[in-house]
Amino acid sequence: MKRTFLTAFALLSLFNPVVKAEEVPNPTDDKKVVKHLNLEEVEINASRVNAKLKDLPQKIEVITQRTIEASPAVDVAGLLKRSASIDILQYPGVQATVSMRGFTPSPSVKYTVILVDGKPAGTENIASINLQNVERVEILKGPFSAQYGSAAMAGVVNIVTKNSTGELSGRIDTEYGSFKTSKLNVGLGGSVSEAVDFDLGFAFNNQGKDYKTGDRNLYDEKYAKSILDESTYDGRMENTKFTTYNLNTRLGITLAEDWKINLNGGYYKGDDIETPGNFWHSEGMDSKDIERFTTGFDVVGKIRNHNIKFSPFYSNEENKTIDVGSDGYGDFESVYKNYGFQLTDSYQIGKHNLAFGLDNKTEKYESTNFDTSGNVEAPYQPDYNNIATGLYAQLQFKLLNDKLNLMLGARGDHIKFKLEADNLLGNDKSSEDYWELTSNVGVKYEMLEGLSAHASYGDAFLAPKAYQVAGRYTRGTSTTVGNPDLNPETSKTIDLGLSYNSYRKGINLDITYFNTHHKDKIIRSYLPDYSTTYINAQSADMDGLELSASYDFGALKDYDYSLRLYLNYTHLIDATVKYADAQGNPLEGGMRFVRDNTASFGVEFDNLKGFSTRLNGRYIGHRYENNYMYLADYSNWPNITKEPIVFNGKEVRPDLVDEELLRHPVSYVFDYSASYSFNEHYTVGLSISNLLDENYTEKDGYNMPGRAFMAKFSYQF
Question: Which residues form the TonB-dependent receptor-like beta-barrel domain (predicted)?
């Protein structure tokens, strides 16, 4: 089977010489297409000073529209794990969270800020952010709390959407493939007059059949089977069908010379999304609905040397989980609201930039629990608000004939926690607040043409949740007491690196070393009366190397074509967490859910005459996870009796039942895509996800889809 796909790749690559000249766009115009590879000239939207990538001292990566179109991914989660060396925690059923640089990815503790066009994304679930309207994705690695406040400890992911002007144009994409998957994407945008432009996008994605898992492992299959269990190979992952809809709109109106308003809105609907639990369904199965509405506007203008931007935003996301299995839990509903504004003044003094601004954001969480009879019961925690107001300043200096770039910044955040009263939990309304100050400094110096050294330092923080610092509430026999003395989690990070970039030579290279000290990690603890509370206890140290490298052979022929080899690799030298056992003895251990090595690599070819093809590989390194895949009897507490899960009459991982910690295997996941455009308007394409049918997980027991084929037809107008 491997030989078959390699042969197909070679034949498709050889196909491009027979393309007729009259069937392709003008070659002169085509050369402009490849110029987006010169990423050094891209202005980074999330930098807050509108600086170009080549001038920023921090570690920043950009996923271009070319990569997005070549990827089989339909959402941000799928794109990031294929195209950036990051850590992801992903479950079947449209659920994923991401992190970087040794910070644990978790659905409950977020160390990475997710933005859309520089504003809060309105969701904590990146698997629910569709790619239909995305122009590029900016990945800012390292501490960025001085720019964006709480949670920007591991980094920032900024999703930049399309902003079409000029002649009206559009595109319709239809796809169909494995697991009865059908997709439809429609996009339209451009100017309707000198003063008005717009973008409109719609996406539909349906998987009508439960997916199958992979049937092999490219590396050390014996060890992989001991962890994944043989029952998960080439098996049907039941209860994984779903349907999603996505609508994006933007309306731009020129108000006056140098002044414009962009009104934007979005709607996302996940309908009857099946969630299987683990492969063996030992904790039951559910179904869920996701509905999200986002709206806002950006007023941008210029007064002398001042570039002003005012951006209010509002989002409302509702999640409903319906119990369809026998897990002993009822239905669950939650509402997440995110609203506020950003006000920025970017001032230019010669070649230097000063940006200062005011951010205000309210995050409101509401939830309702139901028992198995459908009656309302006490929620897991009270409803609460986190209200953050931040003042920041960022300065960029260009010195020594632009060879030296210096960045300085600071931010002060006031965060107020409000806990709402809840009769079912027996808690009163309460609140707490505090201030947090963060800073950053960075320098980049061009030693020779294209060769630069860069270094940066920054501190960052993660604010606790309101129920962790305020109030007292009881659910069943368990009482939780907030800790008003709880500090935010904080970190300090140093980056050192070298880069060499030459668009003319087709070379892009960067190697960065990072070192982070993370302290005051928030954990659950117990008071003398056995009530639960939260304390600052754990700390962690992470350091590692990041390598980004690519070479385009097209540079040898003045980019008459593009043939690019690329690698994006992260190696964690150390990711150690320090904690104490029940007796207070100090202990150390490896960070959970964090891979020791991650990489994306591959080759892509574009003849700039209508044909393109891409082979992308992903290396998923070892990670540690606590072992929860067993049946436990707590009737003789504190003694716990463990028994293996039984699936289809066979015991699952019987030899691992008593293992507290599992080291998960290495996986290699390859994707292939090819497309051919003809008659200027039509494109046909093929993509194969998980080309070698690897059986792998992003979370223990939650196996990902095996090999999947998709055929695509597009019409551009």
Answer: 202-691
| Domain-embedded: residue 631 | no
Instruction: Measure the CA–CA gap between 429 and 422, rounded to whole angstroms.
Output: 8
Number of other CB atoms surrounding residue 650 within 10 Å: 12
Give me the CATH number covering residue 398: 2.40.170.20
Residue 436 in contact with residue 415, Cβ under 8 Å? yes
Nearest by Cα to 270 from 93, 115, 123: 93
171 Cβ contact partners less than 8 Å away, ≥ 6 residues apart: 185, 186, 187, 714, 715, 716, 717
DSSP codes, 13-50: HHHGGG--GGGS--HHHHHHHGGGG-GGG-B-GGGSS-
Residue 630 domain-assigned (yes or no): no
Please name the amino acid found at residue 201.
G
Residue 65: strand, helix, or coil:
helix
Angstrom distance (rounded) from CA 706 to CA 213: 4
* Cα radius of gyration rounded to whole Å, the chain: 26
**For the chain, percent of residues with pLDDT exceeding 90:** 79
Q: In the 8-state DSSP scheme, what is residue 179?
A: G
The DSSP symbol for 146 reads H
Q: How many distinct structural domains can be found in the chain?
A: 1
pLDDT of residue 582: 59
| 0.85 surpassed by pTM | yes
Dist CA 163 CA 21 (whole Å): 31
Assigned token pair, 48: 């807050």
Is 426 inside any structural domain? yes
Mean pLDDT of 656-661: 92
Spatial CA neighbour of 492 closest among 523, 461, 538, 535: 461
Residues in the chain: 717
Return the beta strands (E) in 72-195 as ranges: 87-91, 95-99, 112-116, 119-120, 134-141, 155-161, 169-177, 181-191
**Is residue 640 in some structural domain?**
no
Q: CA-to-CA distance for 702 and 232, rounded, in angstroms?
A: 10
DSSP states of 644-683: -EEETTEEESGGGTT-SEEEEPPEEEEEEEEEEEETTTEE
Surface-to-core class of residue 632, CB atoms within 10 Å of its CB (0-12 exposed, 13-18 middle, 19+ buried): exposed
Q: Residue 410: is it exposed, middle or buried by C-beta count within 10 angstroms (0-12/13-18/19+)?
A: middle
Q: Which domain holds residue 693?
A: 2-622+665-716
**Phi, psi (rounded to 5 degrees) for 581:** -85, -175
Both tokens of 14, joined, read 């050889």
Distance, CA of 560 to CA of 423 (rounded, Å):
70
| Cis amide bond preceding 654, omega within 30 | no
- Residues forming a β-bridge with 159: 116, 137
Token output for 176: 């169909």
